[in-house]
Design brief:
Oligomer: heterodimer
Largest sheet of chain B: 7 strands, mixed
Low-confidence stretches of chain A: none
Largest sheet of chain A: 6 strands, mixed
Shape of chain B: globular
Structural class of chain A: mainly beta
Distance between the termini of chain A: 41 Å
Strand content of chain A: over 45%
Number of helices of chain B: 0
Distance between the termini of chain B: 36 Å
Radius of gyration of chain B: 13 Å
Strand content of chain B: over 45%
Chain lengths: 115, 112
């Protein structure tokens, strides 16, 4: 079975400060990990993914995420937050073993960047 | 590329009515899926398909039917609408190899 947890319902950060949105996961095999962003009244947009290779993954809009196998985490980060980054962020995991192709999504974390 | 398109954007139904939510993609993706999004519940998978003629149930399939006659289209049918089906519905597509999905803009459905 696969699962993903986003332990914070909401993250508040001041504009210009670094931001982190947390995600932990559980899978049987090697994880495929994803981050998506959802702006109000829009569909989800793919930001970045980790499948294999470098543990630090860079994605759209200046976001990056660090894969940590020992802590089973895949936290989303950005060095300097913008007010326009305020949105709902979803982490997702897919088990790379056994031919599974259905991802499990976290419940989402609302990021609020204050001017 | 238009990406993933969904129609209608908004719909109001009365209890017991049926309707079809349309979804189309022009990226030749083999994998397509339907989710519903409810406050505090995140995304829940309704049905998915890994190719034309192949569909399967997700986490919350009751009350919904799907079909996949072409690679491009993946309609979702509500058989007899219930107030519990009031939600925002998203269609998504992707490739099994790459893993990420591309989402449509959503359909906001209200059942009274």
């Amino acid at each position: 079975a696969q699962s993903v947890a986003q332990p914070e319902d909401q993250v508040n950060v001041a504009e210009g400060n670094p931001l982190t949105v947390k995600c932990t996961y559980s899978v049987s095999g090697n994880p495929y990990l994803f981050w998506y962003v959802q702006y109000p009244n829009r569909g989800l947009q793919f930001l970045l993914k980790y499948i294999t290779g470098d543990n630090l993954v860079k994605g759209s809009y200046g976001f990056e995420a660090e894969f940590n196998k020992s802590q089973t985490s895949f936290h989303l980060k950005k060095p300097s937050a913008l007010v326009s980054d305020s949105a709902l962020y979803f982490c997702a995991v897919r088990d790379g073993a056994g031919g599974s192709y259905i991802p499990t999504f976290g419940r989402g974390t609302s990021l609020i960047v204050h001017p | 590329n238009a990406g993933v398109t969904q129609t209608p954007k908004f719909q109001v139904l009365k209890t017991g009515q049926s309707m079809t939510l349309q979804c189309a993609q022009d990226m030749n993706h083999e994998y397509m899926s339907w989710y519903r999004q409810d406050p505090g519940m995140g995304l829940r998978l309704i049905h998915y398909s890994v190719g034309a003629g192949i569909t399967d149930q997700g986490e919350v399939p009751n009350g919904y039917n799907v079909s996949r006659s072409t690679t491009e289209d993946f309609p979702l049918r509500l058989l007899s609408a219930a107030p519990s089906q009031t939600s925002v519905y998203f269609c998504a597509s992707g490739t099994v190899l790459a893993g990420e999905q591309y989402f449509g803009p959503g359909t906001r459905l209200t059942v009274t």
